[in-house]
Structures are given as structure tokens and as C-alpha cells.
Recover the amino acids of this structure.
């Protein structure tokens, strides 16, 4: 067994604790941490002085939660001021590495958070006993001073009377004052001794009950034990890597919309929790999406039996349809296409996708306190396209949305995002997964100056001859009333009187029209009855209106479409 003369963290600076936990234990500080989805990979590095031959090194203490089968140790020759040198078979080698766990008595101190009420009561009585004992000592010292003053006064009386300088009145007054002070302190001392006696009885009873019901749980400590062979004496660099549970991280973001609404600043952070039993002080932190505990086994194949049967006459005669809601999602956008050289939208990640690793730009400290700690990762500012948009079918509010490319240099994982604009914090939203260069769309709250009211009317009719060409026609009319509630003097106090000032603001309104997937059902918009005509209608049935409203202006939008189905269709 060897002990190091000086142990450092690999940079020449002494470790966090120059005094080892045991006489023969080396202290290797945690220097690098890779936080996974539900655990962490911890790396310890340091240097130690070795002697020639086979020797056993004891490193620690380490957290008892260390996963034994994940332990990996490396050792290489080290020279001050030079990089580590790997001499292969001629250098020091590690033959064995294992975690040694032992139970030790609990250190003295206050009971932990999981201690019982009886143990807490014993600790409280012990502290009160110490306080009462200290107070009793102070009173006894003060009473001794009073007795000494009384003895000095008696000596003064004897000497004065013998010298013929008698002063009975002064001597009587001082004796009375000394006696009063002594009686007061003696009374306090008696009461304090009675209290100390009662506390001693209570503490004895509580200790007896504690000894009969429970014992002090020992503390589990762990060390890493290495068997090393060194061809010659010298300094060596040791690196120990292991997995520990009780650590996790989640992404978090903060998006700030500029006052001119032309750019967005996005800050990427990570919340890190850990309760591994040891603090991470000044470590290089990496954050990974890997799942080392996920079983990598192929799924079991089961038989999927398909059967054919003849349709009944009623089934041949009818077509059953149903209305369903479907989310329209896209990956990528204009910025993503530009980044890819016009090759189209960036592909999305597979469900079991590639592992992503993010790195903290500077060393961080994460204590083992079960609390979330925010770690800054990156930040960027990108130009954005903003619009005030409303989907009246879902909400009458007009919200401000911004689209901007992901210029962080890494993917944006799904997570919460704090939204900030010129008025301050506006709320929290969810950041969707976004690849590098992909467009991101965020909503920054509602605009109280706009309001949209929606009314719908439906009319059902039948046309044609029964049994020949009869069709059911459903006509739906959607009326939207768009209002701008502000006044020029409220938001633009100086622009109202300026010639040529443009006080109008643009709002985008989106409605939807059903899309048919079967030829027996037809859906068409009636342009002659729509006021005004839609600005755009896409293949997914989303109808888009762009309106520019002046302060206090109100407009009405009418959208009419019809759904026509043959008599064989059921379900409408």
C-alpha cells in the first residue's frame, strides 16, 4: 500500500481535500460528469506517487451508489508540466478495480432528516442540558465574585476599625447591597440546579427508551480499490469512471422577442438534479440523451391473421363515413430548406434516434441536495417573422407568433420555454423538437387590442330523385366579426396628427374547411357567397384571411362551403 506525497486534480492544483479520509486513502476529485437521462457517468482524475512493483491503492471516499459493473480505471505515467504518456506494456498497469463498501458508526452531530421523533427529542434534551450547564457555570462564577467582594469588605471593616476610621453607615450600606446580590444569584442558581436535575431525569428516561427501541444506524462508506503494477517509482495519473444513479437533467429555454419584433433571442439551459451523496464542484458537465438502461432487444413477433369475407348487400349499398380531427404537422421550413441547399425540409429524428450530447461552456457546481440547478448551455439571436394570428374556432384571442431558424448549433430538445417580450414575462409554452436550421414557431401571448367573434349556421337539404341521383347537401356559413378596440391616442399619441401616418395593423385569421377522402363525398367552397374572398386555401382545408385594421375599425368575414354526399353515404 502506498500513500501519495501530493495529490492533484491533474492540473497541478491540490485537490479539494488534501487530508485523505483514511491514512492510506487517495482523494480523487470529480472532474468530469456526463449526466444521462436518469443517471450520471462520473469521472475522477488525479496524480499519485507510486513505488516500483505491485501495490494496492485505495481511492475515496466515493458515493456508495457507484455501480460496480460500470467501474473502469486507467493509469498512465505522468510528468509535471508534460502531457500524460502511455508507455503501453512498459508503463503502470491496472490489474483489478473494485468498490469496497463498509459500515462505520454515525459521526456525531444533529440527527438527519430521516431520524425518529424520539431521537430528535434526545438531541433536543442534550442541547438544552449543555445550555443549562453553561448558564450554571456563569452563575457560579458570578456568585464567587460576590463572595470575594464580601470578604474584601469584611477585611476593609476590620482594618478601618483598628485604625480608628470607622464609617458604620457606609459599611452597612455596602454589606446590604452585597447580601442582596448574593441572595438573588443564589436563588437563580437553585432554580437552575432544579431544572438541570429535571432535565437529567428526562434525558435518562429518553435515552433508556431510545436504547430499547432502536439503535444508531451505521453509515455506509465506499472506496475504490485498485491493484496496480508499476515498473519503476514515479508519478502516475489515475482516471476512474463509473455510473451512479439518482441524477437526471431536463432542457429548459427562455425566448425573448425584441421590441421591434424583428428578432428573437433564445437561451438554452438545463435543469440538473442529483442526490448521489457527493457534490460536483467545478466539474466539466456534459448532458446526454442516452438511455443506458434501455433494453436493446428486438421485439417479439406475433402472428397477425387476416381473413376475407363477402360483404353483405347492405354494405355494398352504403358507404359509411365519419368526421375526425387530424393534426397537420411539418418538419423544417424555409430556413431549413435554405440550409440544406434547397434539398427540402430536414428529416425528423427516428423514435429511437441518435444520441445527442450537449456541453456546458464553463465548469459548474451541482450540490447533492435534490434541488434543480439551472445550467446555461447556449444562446443565439436570430431574425424572425412575426404575425398576429387567430384561429376563431379554437379561441377568440389574437396571439403574436414568431418563426425563426434554430441557429444554436445543436438540436433543440422538447422542453418548457419561458416567453418574454417588451411587456415582460408573458407565460410559458412548450418548445417542440427542432433540428439544426429548422424553423421554430413560438407564441408570445395574446394581443388585447383585437377581438374575434365567430357565429356558424348550418342548413341541410336534399336534391335529386330518390333512388336515382338523390344527394344530401349540407351548407355551412361561418361569420367572423373582427374588431380592433384601441384608439390612436392610446397607443400612438403623436402619430394621429401626423400626415401620412399608417396606423393600420395586420391580423391573420385562419378557418378550416373539411377535406374529403372518398369520392362519394364532395366539399367545395362557394366563392360567390364568401365576403371577402379568402386570400389562400391550402390542400389541408385551411382558409387564410389577411386583414389590415385601423384603430377602432370593425369588419365582417363570411365563409360559406357545402358538403355534398350521395344517398349511399351514412354517418354525416
Amino acid at each position: 500500500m502506498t500513500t501519495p506525497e501530493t495529490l492533484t486534480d491533474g492540473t497541478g492544483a491540490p485537490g479539494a481535500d488534501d487530508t485523505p479520509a483514511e491514512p492510506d486513502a487517495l482523494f480523487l476529485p470529480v472532474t468530469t460528469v456526463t449526466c444521462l437521462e436518469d443517471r450520471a457517468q462520473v469521472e475522477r482524475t488525479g496524480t499519485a506517487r507510486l513505488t516500483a512493483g505491485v501495490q494496492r491503492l485505495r481511492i475515496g471516499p466515493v458515493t456508495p451508489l457507484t455501480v460496480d459493473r460500470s467501474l473502469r480505471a486507467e493509469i498512465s505515467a505522468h510528468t509535471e508540466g508534460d502531457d500524460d504518456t502511455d508507455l503501453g506494456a512498459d508503463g503502470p498497469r491496472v490489474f483489478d478495480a473494485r468498490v469496497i463498501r463498509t459500515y462505520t458508526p454515525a459521526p456525531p452531530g444533529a440527527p438527519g432528516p430521516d431520524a425518529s421523533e424520539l431521537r430528535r427529542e434526545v438531541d433536543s434534551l442534550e442541547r438544552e442540558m449543555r445550555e443549562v450547564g453553561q448558564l450554571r457555570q456563569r452563575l457560579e462564577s458570578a456568585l464567587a465574585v460576590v463572595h470575594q467582594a464580601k470578604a474584601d469588605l469584611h477585611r476593609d471593616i476590620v482594618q478601618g476599625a483598628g485604625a480608628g476610621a470607622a464609617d458604620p453607615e457606609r459599611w452597612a450600606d455596602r454589606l446590604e447591597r452585597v447580601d442582596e446580590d448574593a441572595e438573588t444569584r443564589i436563588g437563580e442558581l437553585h432554580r437552575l440546579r432544579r431544572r438541570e436535575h429535571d432535565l437529567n431525569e428526562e434525558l435518562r428516561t429518553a435515552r433508556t427508551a431510545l436504547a430499547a427501541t432502536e439503535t444508531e444506524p451505521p453509515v455506509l462508506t465506499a472506496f475504490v480499490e485498485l491493484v496496480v503494477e508499476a515498473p519503476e517509482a514515479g508519478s502516475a495519473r489515475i482516471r476512474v469512471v463509473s455510473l451512479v444513479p439518482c441524477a437526471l437533467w431536463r432542457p429548459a429555454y427562455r425566448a425573448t422577442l425584441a421590441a421591434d419584433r424583428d428578432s428573437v433571442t433564445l437561451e438554452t439551459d438545463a435543469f440538473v438534479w442529483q442526490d448521489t451523496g457527493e457534490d460536483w464542484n467545478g466539474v466539466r458537465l456534459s448532458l446526454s440523451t442516452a438511455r443506458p438502461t434501455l433494453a436493446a432487444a428486438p421485439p417479439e413477433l406475433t402472428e397477425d391473421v387476416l381473413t376475407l369475407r363477402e360483404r353483405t348487400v347492405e354494405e355494398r349499398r352504403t358507404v359509411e363515413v365519419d368526421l375526425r380531427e387530424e393534426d397537420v404537422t411539418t418538419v423544417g421550413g424555409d430556413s431549413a430548406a435554405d440550409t440544406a441547399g434547397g434539398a427540402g425540409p430536414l428529416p425528423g429524428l427516428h423514435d429511437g434516434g441518435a444520441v445527442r450530447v450537449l456541453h456546458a461552456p464553463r465548469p459548474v457546481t451541482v450540490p447533492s441536495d435534490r434541488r434543480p440547478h439551472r445550467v446555461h448551455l447556449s444562446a443565439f439571436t436570430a431574425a424572425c417573422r412575426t404575425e398576429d394570428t387567430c384561429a376563431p374556432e379554437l379561441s377568440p384571442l389574437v396571439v403574436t407568433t414568431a418563426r425563426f431558424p434554430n441557429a444554436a448549433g445543436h438540436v433543440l430538445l422538447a422542453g418548457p420555454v419561458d416567453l418574454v417580450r417588451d411587456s415582460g414575462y408573458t407565460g410559458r409554452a412548450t418548445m417542440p423538437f427542432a433540428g439544426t436550421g429548422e424553423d421554430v414557431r413560438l407564441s408570445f401571448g395574446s394581443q388585447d387590442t383585437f377581438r374575434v367573434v365567430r357565429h356558424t349556421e348550418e342548413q341541410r337539404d336534399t336534391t335529386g330523385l330518390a333512388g336515382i341521383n338523390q344527394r344530401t347537401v349540407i351548407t355551412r356559413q361561418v361569420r367572423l366579426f373582427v374588431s380592433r378596440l384601441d384608439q390612436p391616442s392610446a397607443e400612438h399619441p403623436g402619430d394621429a396628427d401626423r400626415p401620412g401616418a399608417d396606423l393600420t395593423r395586420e391580423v391573420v385569421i385562419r378557418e378550416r374547411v373539411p377535406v374529403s377522402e372518398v369520392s362519394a363525398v364532395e366539399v367545395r367552397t362557394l366563392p360567390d357567397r364568401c365576403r371577402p374572398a379568402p386570400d389562400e386555401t391550402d390542400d389541408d382545408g385551411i382558409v387564410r384571411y389577411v386583414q389590415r385594421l385601423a384603430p377602432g375599425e370593425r369588419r365582417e368575414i363570411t365563409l360559406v362551403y357545402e358538403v355534398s354526399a350521395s344517398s349511399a353515404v351514412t354517418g354525416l
Q: What stands out?
A: The chain is about 20% helix and 40% strand.
